[in-house]
Each structure stands twice: as C-alpha cells, then as structure tokens.
Structures
1.
Amino acid sequence: MKPFSILLCILLLAGSLTGCDSKQIATSEVTEVSETQEADQGGQASVKDDESQKDVVKVAIGSPDHSTLVKAVQAADLVNVLSNAGPFTVFAPTNAAFEKLPSGTLEELTKPENKADLQNILQYHVYVGALNADQLTDGQTLNQVNGDNITIQVKEGKIMVNNSATIVASVKASNGIVHIMDGVLLPPKK
C-alpha cells in the first residue's frame, strides 16, 4: 500500500473513533498532500531517467560546450517545453558562439525584465520537427517556433544557417535532434 493510502486510512479511522467528520479530515489531508506533490513536481524536465536516450535539453546539459545555452534556456523558462515529446530540431550555439556577441548582450537578455526577448531569440533556434543534417538543403526555408524563418545554405559540404552560423556537428535526441552551431541566430527586427 502506498504511504498516502495508509495515511488516508489512519485519518479515516481516527476520525470515526473520535466522532469527527471523517469526510472533512480526509478532504483537508488530500488537499494538503496534493499541494505538496504539485510543488515538488518540476514538469517534464524533472523526470529522472538515466536509461533512455536524452532529450534535447539533456543533450545540451551534458555538453560542457553548451553551458551558456543551458543557462539562457533556464532563464527563459523553456526547459520543460523543450523536454516534451517534440519532435524538435534545435540549432544550438556553443559557448564560443555566445562569446562572439557584443559584450553585455547575454547578461542584459537574461535579466527578468527581458525574458520575452530572450524567449524570442531562443525560439528562433527551434524548429518543430526532426530534421537530420542530410534533410537540410540549399535554399530551404524553415519556420521557427517564434514565427520567423531561417534559411539553409549548403556550400562545399558545409551547412550554414542564415549565412551566419555553420553546423559543426549533430546529436540525435529522444525528442529530436540538436545541430551544434558556431554562431547565434538573431531574429529579424520587426
């Protein structure tokens, strides 16, 4: 029997022995347990599974070259979204790619008041659907999660995005694929 069921049985028994309204005790106890359980749950990203293939977020977390991206995804509250079933194609800039941005850019974007801007930039790096590198073709346009498009270029066997970032490697994930890139994509200004 689960601890919750045992606790509920004890409370019901105690309520009937003391003449209390057992329904009131059981209801209040169930409410307290439910609220505690909800507070402890962290969404899909909090699921502990060391045996299955890693999702796109766990791929990034496992890469020492993507700690900046992971911090940005956490600041934008996108961890649970990207841990869901997907499938997603994530164009993942490395730490070195973020270092190419003007000084202070990332620090400014990770401030709480700039969360929407950070989400927009990060969502510009995500396509809904799993596209392997061999499925990316020259001139292909992809509509990203933020609603803007990116364009793929293939030159001399290298795959570039928006003529600004090159895919240097790809890693399959349980919910899509991560294309590691040497640049950060910035959405078009509106």
2.
Amino acid sequence: MSEGAQPQQAPTSASAVVRTEYTTRVVWGEDLLEYNFGKHHPMSPVRLDLTARLCRELGLFDLPRVSVAEPYVASDDELATVHTREYVAAVRRVSADPDRPEPERGLGTEDDPAFAGMHEASARIVGGSLVAAEAILEGSAVHAVNFAGGMHHAAADRGSGFCIYNDAAAAIQRLLDRGVGRVLYVDVDAHHGDGTERIFWDEPRVMTISLHESGLTLFPGTGFPSDVGGPGAEGTAVNVALPAGTRDAGWLRAFHAVVPPLVEAFRPEVIVSQHGCDAHHLDPLTNLKVTVDAQRELALSVSALARRFCEGRWIATGGGGYEVVQVVPRAWAHLVGIAAGHPVHLQTPTPQPWRDYVRERYGKDAPTLMGEGADTWWRSWEIGFNPNDPVDRAVMATRKEVFPLHGLDPWFD
C-alpha cells in the first residue's frame, strides 16, 4: 500500500482508524443541482444529489470539525480573474436566451447544451470553490472540498467538455492573488485537465499535474508528455498519458512515480486537486479500469502530500464521473471522509436509508458496501522500469521530459 493508505478490512479498534485534527469546510447547497444540461446528458445532477445524501447518511457532514458552507454565485469580476470578460458576457447572453447559442465559444453544443440560468448555475460552482479557497486563506479550515467543482475543461475564452467556468482555476488564482507563493494542481480525472493547464501555462507559481487516459484514445486529445509549460514556466505543466485499460496497480504506480518527487521539488504551499472519478471501470465514457478502492487510496495519498509539504492545506474538487449510482457517490464520499480526517473503511455498508432512496427515487439498486474488495497493491518505481509495460513507458516518457527541468534524474528519483 502507498503512504497514507488504509487497510481494506474493518478496523478492530478506534486506533485502527487514522484521524487528524484538521478542520474541514465542505461546500454544499441544493442550488448546485441547477447545473443541469438536460435529462439525457451524462453530466447529471443526480450524482451530486446522491453524493451529498450518502455523506449525510454516513455522518460526515455532522463530524465535530466539519462545517458545511453554502456556495454563492461568483461575480463577473471574480470570473474575470481566469476568463475573458467577452466570454463571461457570452455565457450571460446564452443563459438569458438559450435559443441563441454561440457554438464558436463552446456554448450550445452537444457537449455543453445551452439552458436557462446557465451563467448563474456555472458561476455558483465557481463561488463554491472560492468559498473553499477563502477558508484556507483565512485559516478557518485546513482542508476544503467542493465535490460539485472540478470543471477542468473550461478555458479562458470558451466552454468545453461539460464545463462552462473553471472553478479550480479561479480558486488557484484567488490563492495567488492573496499571497500564496506556489500552488500545486493535481488532476486525476480520466480526461486531460486541459483548461486548467492552459490558463496557467505561463505561470511558474502553479504546477499542474494531470494523470489521464492518453489523448490518442480519449477527449480532448491533448496532454502529452512533451507539453511542459510556456516560456519561463517550463516544467510546471506535467502530463502522464496512460494507455487505455490501465488498472489499479498501474494507475497508482504512475501517480507515485511522478507526483511525490515533483511535489518535493516544487514545494507547494497549497494543493488543489481534481478527483474526477471517470477512470472507473464502469464509467461509460472512458477506457481506464480503476476501482473505487484505488480512487480512495489516491485521495489518501494526496492528503498525505498536503500534510507533508503544505501543513495540510488542501482544496479538493470533484470533476468527471458518469456512473452516477455505483461510482460517483462512493468515490466522493470517500474524498469527503478523508478530507474530514475520518476515512470511511471500504467494508463499511452503505446506509440502508440511502439505498432505499436510490431505489425509490431513481429505480436502481445501490451498492451495498463502500468498497469493491479490490487488490490495490502497486509496484514502487524503485523496483525498476519495465520497457515492455505500456504504463511504465508512459511514466518514463513523462519523467524524461519533466524531471531534468527540476534537477531530478528520470531514472532514479
């Protein structure tokens, strides 16, 4: 198991559960369900409803060091810290009149259908991540979670890939504007975090690391190892382009072979992470094959990195994830539990009231356990590089491009 990972069997005593004393701010409000592209769109608000209800039934919202905060609709000035004002105006126009799309700006397309109130719904997600950033900045929380966020495809001047405004980028920019010297952004969505990367392409104070399925087989077709950042910021864009079919062991091996050494070299003051859970083997839109168990373990590893390098300061967002009953609620409830210092064990039964709600409201059978019983053992990179393994080749391609830019040896560090 990796650093920070928890055993996959039920604990036999209270001491078997790792807890921290960090205060945690969770952003949630029913208004976030208004981000809704329509009944048949993959980005269903059902996933948020079921996540919040599962967190509540597990008691995560009621933990003594957890506070739940409502999001707000971010102002145009706040949006303009990472988006052009022309684009914000275009979103407002389409939001007011969905029958007049602006597809050249990614508004009113198949991926991003126009809907009434789109501006407010999208800006509210940004407001949620700004609430998280402010909690970190003011010291009222050390960890913060906006599982409705993670809209990583939105670029400065256009929407893309189910994303209208880029909330994680806005949170990062707020941190920088308020004096944070270096921010690490880690994106483990199956899709490349292209929007966030591009917004900070020339910004040496931000390192973006995206661990995703290769653009050769998946939207948006970007995020290759040679994409390392703009002039003066070389080495601050990091892309691990994994082969389709990558499973738990390869996914976790790739993360640990790339992320911890770069975090140690970059020395961030805050970590912002995007936990799109569409790398799951049941996800209908992607080709990676990981489990909820591995996604939980990776979140534990991000938390451990924040604890080691950032005095715990960590903002976690959601992202993609389109198996809205079996996968998303469990993955993000684990994320909330980890951020709250109260990891939920994989053999914990899902609460019966939650399962009843899923059946009555959506006519589907919910999972009965919080885990899948997966074997998440992974080989440390120190064991050696296997040139016949496509995951190892992907990892080495990234290390060879980026590690020397940080004084690291791509073979041994």
